[in-house]
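We now fix the convention by which a protein and its fold are recorded. The integers have meaning only within a learned vocabulary of local backbone shapes. The record below shows the convention in full.
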Amino acid sequence: MRPHKAEEDKGIVYCNRVRLGNWYEAATLEEYKLNMFLEQMKRGDLMLARFRKMTENLNTPTVLTPSTGNIAFGAKISLYAPHVPAKDRAGEGKKGLLLGGRISSDDIPYSQELEDGCSIVGIPYSEPANRHAFVITSADYCDRDGELLKYNQEFLLKLASTDVNKQPLYIRYDPDPVPGLLGAFTLYLSKHFVSNTRWRVLPLQRPGITRFEQEGTAVVVNQDCIINHCATNLNLGIRVGHWAMGFYGKICAPLMQTCLDVYGRELPNNIWQIHTKIPTSK
């Protein structure tokens, strides 16, 4: 005969060995985690909120300086490589890459905008945005805004979206970087105005005229040219086929190397354009 329920319960005795405190601790911990989550959501510290903020900062549309002819100091431009594929697989679609800033997954917890040390990569062509808009700035401590940029004249490429209250950021290349610091992305943004941030535009080599004869003439926008690093005399290029995954799709690594064919002419991955918007009459 089975004993009565009340008689069974008499054998259950609660003492200091019963771990009721652990159950309460677990419930309190879950409540604490929920409160922390809500607080982080209010402050915008969640990864999703950081990603949205980064997207807003980097992909904010901007307006490039319109021009139909020459380019001047102070103009907002993009560096466009029109003769390289915009995808890692051959197929239909637009060609060409823009040089722009990148925030890695390691950087996004600390900053959602381009800062000192952020790498420069090749981005598939798109409408003008903050991350690939730069201002041509004088490299000789003189105010040259409005003066025409000439072939073989030194200049700086300053990030256009830099806050006026912060130090300007320049595209920089170090020929002997710290091993493992930059990896495949040899270009980066720097707040230091040094010789490694100086660049110049060279005309393409032509059979009927030498570069020496074209030195001193004004640079024409949306026309093929060479971007040369003054400190190393190396040409800026795109490492075709060297792709990586970014937040907004695949990106391509830049290349600092003068690539020539058998006739001594630069290869397509070394050819760039000072890209601006062409004004249209209404």
